[in-house]
Design a protein that fits this description.
The complex is a heteropentamer, with two copies of chain A (334 residues), one copy of chain B (271 residues) and two copies of chain C (246 residues).
Chain A lengths: L2 H23 E2 L8 E2 L6 H30 L11 H14 L1 H6 L8 H18 L1 E2 L2 E2 L1 H25 L2 H7 L13 H20 L1 H7 L3 H6 L4 H23 L3 H15 L3 H24 L10 H19 L10
Antiparallel strand pairs in A: 1-2, 3-4
Helix pairs in contact in A: 1-2, 1-13, 2-8, 2-11, 2-12, 2-13, 3-5, 3-6, 5-6, 5-11, 8-9, 8-11, 8-13, 9-13, 12-13, 12-14, 13-14
Chain B lengths: L2 E3 L5 E3 L8 E3 L2 H9 L6 E3 L14 E2 L2 E2 L1 H7 L3 E4 L8 H10 L2 E4 L5 H15 L5 H21 L11 E7 L7 E2 L5 H8 L3 E2 L11 H7 L3 E6 L2 H11 L4 E4 L13 H15 L1
Helix pairs in contact in B: 4-5, 4-6, 5-9
Chain C lengths: L1 E10 L2 E11 L4 E6 L5 H8 L7 E6 L2 E2 L5 H7 E4 L11 H9 L8 H12 L14 H15 L5 E5 L7 H16 L3 E5 L3 H7 L2 E6 L2 E6 L1 H4 L2 H8 L3 E4 L2 E4 L2
Helix pairs in contact in C: 3-4, 3-5, 4-5
The chains are: A mainly alpha (334), B alpha/beta (271), C alpha/beta (246).
The structure holds adenosine-5'-triphosphate (ATP) (2 copies) and magnesium ion (2 copies).
Chain lengths: 334, 271, 246, 334, 246
């Protein structure tokens, strides 16, 4: 790993840490809801830590998932939700919400929450994987087409279910689709997500050379020892599981997964071994900073939904970095 | 007309001769129409109006099913304008076909009351006084029911500063009812102090709920149980009042029951 | 030791290889020649294990090539494609490292990469993005990757590795490949420069319409009649070896 | 134009016509809302004609817009809304509505509706075009990045405005985002859309060779007489205006614009001259058929939103055609 | 009549062409030769009007090349790239038609396309998707496109159009280009096969590190010393013309 890469990773890590500190120190600790700055009280601290954990974990999941997918599909437009994962999770969550009464009655209330999303995302993953093959191997273009179609179908089914739901539950189930950063997260889920990120990042770092090799042509990659079929299944499963974890944690916050890999690439070049560390860091930094900043912004509707902030904050930053680094994305073939 | 043959050829009775035919594009208004006893005048509703099932769905304000609406031949269309405003097509249809378009905003409690007062004449314009009188009587009864459901609570001071939260999903920020909202108006009627001194429906982080440190929290919505648990951990001193009344989320004549259970719950908590 | 047994390959219904059989042994430089569309690339891809031929078997040291796992094969068989590509942004050094990465266990790879880059004459360009190279530089970069990947006594399958190279670089690359063959490697390469083949190849496989029409030493395969008949131009064998007539 | 192409175009046209007939004949002519089949009454006929006109016009816009964008970006993932047009239109519509009181007061009530959407879409178009340049020329990758970012920002701002609304009306306002097929369309808008489709289709047909040439490398395209800079501006403006028109007519129905060009390509190959006719036909056929079918489907909540039907109907059809035609998308580089 | 005046080109700060000046006249076959990275492609792209050089001017019939609109230029100047590509799915005939399309006004283009395809020897493949061609077939397809595009007395700028071609096809393509030159076209092509250049070129431009180090007839440019010094290999001039020594 050369100096520039190490520097970029250190920079992103520092950015993330400062973001965490900011999120820890900024808040509304006063009874008048005014903005305060300082160490939180004992009651408040766990809430802020919870939010930091959720945002960082989900951001890492998204950043890494996006990286894996862009490598898998060799397409700079790829993002975690292109394969229909958030749509699947949304559908499952909506269906679970619909039957929540019934589910609660049989003592499985937890099913209505994160688990449903995970199950939905993984189910969609399986369907897309089945459809995205050509002569037995996952094929980028076929995956893209299948993913987009299944994603849209799931979205449509969600609308369908929503339109059948009683109004009292319908109106508010939409808030799920804006994404959230829970201050009281499902801790086991956070740990699962972190473990998953760690696992996938380790695997991706170790597969770094294979991922680089896979960005040549199929023939060259194969001759360089990459079993494309196997690698694609690994990438697909990893990206899918990460996206599912992020959805279970924070709902769908699609933008981060698209931007983080490009941002990391703009900062440090294209080697996947290092990107597998930088991209999740970038994702986490974006999400934590967005969450920190939204504490201080209130247009009269309380905190903004996190998705609004990631876009309003991440978007311009991303564009300016991309313009400066004259998008060192060389051969992205479009 | 008094009856039209349906597709099985059997006659189906419709409402009284000359009676207005009502299409309602708002669940809250539909509920009010039903509460006034004018259910049989309803000829069109939205998918989300829960009563009565046999009335044809004519779409909703922003996704109108014009054909079914025309087929339903309403004489009055009742709408609650969305932020997006009123679609031109609906206005145009109404003008072309001579429907009366009645708009009701339903933000505050007085909006709701105003609608209850105004609806009877909207329901039967130019009709025999008999029907009108009947609806006006229902309307008065409804207003009285509102008054009962909104009677001051003694001793309200025991509830202290009260916060009304709507929890939507397990992890998203709960919405609070601030000044100008119908439930804040209800609190005022109960002479209970609203802990939230803001307008509208702000989304509150749990942190700001802790900072507000309410004495009582009314919990509405599907995930009230989870929220209640969190409150217990975060603001142990707060009284938790879960109210399971979906009608509270639909301002209109249908919320009497919900308001009654809210009041009952608060009264119980105040003891 | 590479054995090709009755290999046929079809694209849809169209045959690109028809019942090809031959043996080539290590330590040799074997040239695949023939007209465009003759099946050279198809055969090389099969030889490199990238496709399993529709019929027949290709055996490398007695094992069917397409059955060897990609990772194991990569250590013994290096391949240079006729149309290489790269969708991200790597430098020459990084590109060549992709080849060395297959031998990660051996260690000291940075040295190897550096050595190969120097050997192929890209030392001055080692930090350049691949996308900013000239065509001949790219070609050498890809060959360097194969050299870094290739282990002694392995198989080097190269599909027109000399295209876009200037005469000097051509001789350099040929020299390197010759040296590898001398060290025990099996070098199989497709090329069109028959005078050069005549000079450097130990064995020539001539493919025509998917059939192996000749197999032997350059001198035995490049008969004036066959050359004239196939290519409609006069090759003459003079003191300098084969060359194109006036 | 060879036989296969002519056949495919004729087939799509026939499909569209039969779809129109179906939409004209199927309905709920009874007062009890039961399904009927037959010529509509005089009162009803204009409504059905209106719906057919809306769906056909918007479908054509979407199909053609998608084709132009996929050519512009050389990316099979491109779809009309990738450039943020629907997001821009949605934002403008929402903002206009927010201020509708004020706007109505100054006698510009019409601004609150379709026009706002068009203005919003075109404004976003201008911003994306400004950001999507590299050394003065619209650059596919830069466009993609800028478009996605601006799109997300607009979406976020829309959420922001939505979050200021009372919860009881939030659910309703989402229905706009599902798309609709107005039975009483803004007729001038329909004519504008049809004229725009006609204009763009003629231009694209005439530019067919240039579009084909542009699918080679930049150098080759330029040497074949394509002024890439100019062509990209034409494609970009055309695709943008078409998408804006479709949004103004029917709200955002993204799927059609993605699927229609792939469908047309799967049926008839890749030549743009013919695709410029086939792709809008495919789009219109999908949308009209979806609208016709949803008349007959009622799960007790009235007609389904059009977006649900396009996905549930178009998705599987698309996937099966793609699988059969072994995706003749040759060189899509991913 | 092509005039190159003091042309320099920089990639960032790095010079790829340094103050090149020369004139070449129509009816000639001009070969660009030199070591890899010498600047041939850079010069050819500038000559074809695809880049405006950082400094200096390139004039075609007295008009600055990069100022001519792409459409007008396309009718007079055809270019074959060193790395052609195609992101959609076209057949050989469709690919070649892209060239003919620049001359749409002339009519009878189907005949022209057919003629060119036959001429280049792809008649049997005219319906094949470009992506299913072998490398040499693709190369010829792209050359055919340039031929269909090219008008008599125009400029044909070809960047290694002979790479991947077998000897027969090489001679065929060279023959076609020669004929075009004889008909009044200016053919400028980069190539590395010096014996062939020696046989067929009327004028040779030798680029070295971005500088024009020699310009003249093959016989005058290909001096044994320069060849040996540049390429470190022995070219000898025998009865068959230039050829590579032992
Ligand atoms: N993907 C493919 N689909 C169908 N046919 C193909 C495909 N690839 C090659 N062919 C055909 O198979 C035959 C052999 O092709 P191959 O690429 O092996 O030839 P080659 O000897 O390498 O030619 P060249 O010298 O031009 O590289 C040719 O006729 C070619 O057109
Ligand atoms: N896009 C680019 N960015 C930076 N440098 C470049 C770029 N393209 C070429 N170069 C450099 O400019 C010089 C000239 O390149 P050019 O492609 O013109 O050489 P060439 O004579 O065509 O070589 P070849 O025989 O290998 O095709 C080379 O040193 C090359 O590395
Ligand atoms: Mg080949
Ligand atoms: Mg070159």
């Amino acid at each position: 790993m050369n100096g520039r890469r190490a520097l970029a990773i250190a920079g992103l890590a520092a950015l993330l840490l400062v973001g965490c500190a900011a999120r820890l120190l900024v808040g509304h600790a006063g009874p008048d809801g005014a903005l305060t700055f300082g160490l939180p009280s004992e009651t408040i601290a766990p809430l802020r830590v919870g939010a930091i954990a959720s945002a960082a974990a989900a951001g890492m999941c998204l950043g890494l998932s996006g990286l894996l997918l862009q490598a898998l599909l060799r397409n700079p437009l790829a993002a975690p939700f292109i394969l229909g994962l958030s749509a699947g999770a949304g559908l499952a969550t909506t269906i679970a919400a619909w039957f929540s009464g019934a589910i609660a009655a049989i003592g499985l209330a937890w099913l209505a929450n994160s688990l449903a999303g995970t199950v939905g995302a993984l189910a969609v993953l399986a369907i897309v994987a089945a459809l995205g093959r050509r002569s037995g191997v996952l094929d980028p273009l076929t995956l893209i087409l299948a993913g987009t179609v299944i994603s849209t179908i799931c979205g449509a089914l969600t609308l369908l279910v929503q339109s059948l739901m009683p109004p009292s539950t319908r109106g508010d189930s939409w808030t799920w689709f804006m994404g959230q950063v829970p201050e009281i997260p499902d801790w086991p889920l956070v740990w699962v997500a972190v473990a998953l990120v760690a696992l996938c990042a380790v695997v991706a770092t170790r597969l770094g050379d294979e991922l680089d090799a896979a960005s040549t042509t199929d023939d060259e990659a194969t001759s360089l020892g990459v079993s494309l079929g196997r690698l694609r299944i690994v990438l697909f499963t990893g990206a899918g599981a990460l996206a599912a974890a992020s959805v279970a944690l924070c709902g769908p916050i699609a933008f981060v997964g698209f931007v983080a890999p490009h941002l990391a690439r703009g900062l440090m070049g294209s080697r996947h071994g290092a990107l597998a560390v930088a991209s999740p860091l970038a994702g986490a930094a974006i999400l934590v900073w967005a969450d920190a900043l939204r504490q201080g912004i209130d247009f009269g509707a309380g905190r903004l939904p996190i998705g609004v902030l990631t876009a309003l904050l991440g978007g311009p930053v991303f564009l300016s970095i991309m313009r400066r680094s004259r998008v060192r994305t060389g051969g992205w073939s479009c | 007309e008094s009856s039209t043959p349906d597709r099985h050829g059997t006659a189906r009775t419709e409402q009284a001769p000359g009676g207005t035919r009502i299409a309602s594009l708002s669940p809250g208004i539909t509920a009010t129409v039903v509460a006034l006893g004018a259910q049989e005048r309803l000829v069109g509703r939205t998918p989300w109006c829960q009563v009565p099932r046999e009335v044809v769905v004519v779409g909703s304000l922003l996704d109108l099913d014009a054909e079914r609406l025309v087929e339903a031949r309403p004489s009055v269309v009742l709408v609650q304008p969305a932020v997006q405003g009123m679609p031109d097509s609906l206005r145009q249809l109404a003008t072309d076909r001579g429907w009366r378009l009645e708009e009701f905003h339903l933000d505050s409690l007085s909006d709701v009351r105003a609608m209850v007062v105004a609806l009877p004449s909207a329901l039967c314009e130019g009709e025999s006084d008999g029907e009108l009188a009947q609806y006006e009587e229902s309307s008065l009864r409804l207003l009285a029911a509102f008054d009962r459901a909104l009677a001051p609570i003694e001793p309200a001071s025991k509830l202290g500063r009260t916060l009304i939260l709507l929890t939507s999903t397990e992890s998203s920020d709960p919405l609070a009812f601030g000044t100008g909202t119908y439930l804040a108006d209800a609190l005022a009627a109960y002479t209970v102090e609203n802990a939230l001194r803001r307008e509208g429906y702000p989304a509150l982080s749990w942190e700001s709920i802790v900072a507000i440190a309410p004495d009582t929290v009314v919990l509405l919505g599907r995930h009230a149980d989870g929220a209640s648990e969190r409150l217990l951990r975060l603001v142990p001193s707060a009284r938790r009042v879960p109210v399971d009344a979906p009608s509270l989320l639909q301002p209109g004549g249908g919320m009497i029951e919900g308001l009654s259970s809210l009041r009952a719950a608060l009264v119980k908590a105040a003891q | 030791m590479l054995t090709i047994r009755e290999v046929s390959h079809f694209f849809g219904r169209r045959p690109a290889l028809r019942r090809i059989s031959c043996e080539v042994s290590s330590g040799q430089m074997v040239a695949l020649v023939g007209r465009n569309g003759g099946g050279k690339t198809t055969l090389l891809r099969a030889v490199a294990g990238l496709t399993r031929p529709s019929e027949g078997r290709i055996e490398w040291r007695g094992i069917e090539m397409a059955r060897i796992s990609a990772r194991v094969r990569a250590r013994q068989v290096a391949y240079v494609a006729q149309n290489p590509g790269l969708s991200i942004d790597l430098s020459v050094r990084e590109m060549v490292s992709l080849g060395a990465a297959t031998r990660r266990r051996e260690g000291g790879l940075d040295g190897l990469v550096q050595k190969v880059i120097e050997e192929i004459g890209l030392g001055a360009l080692h930090d350049r993005p691949y996308h900013e190279l000239s065509a001949g530089e790219r070609q050498r970069c890809v060959v360097a990757r194969a050299l870094a990947q290739h282990e002694a006594r392995g198989l080097l399958a190269l599909d027109e590795p000399l295209s876009n190279l200037d005469p000097g670089e051509t001789m350099r690359v040929v020299g390197i490949l010759k040296a590898r063959a001398r060290d025990g490697a099996l070098v199989v390469l497709a090329m069109h420069d028959l005078p050069l083949v005549d000079k450097v190849a130990d064995q020539v496989l001539w493919l025509e319409g998917g059939e192996l029409v000749a197999n032997g030493t350059p001198a035995s395969v490049f008969t004036p009649e066959r050359l004239a008949q196939t290519f409609h131009c006069d090759f003459v064998r003079g003191p300098q070896g084969l060359s194109l007539g006036r």
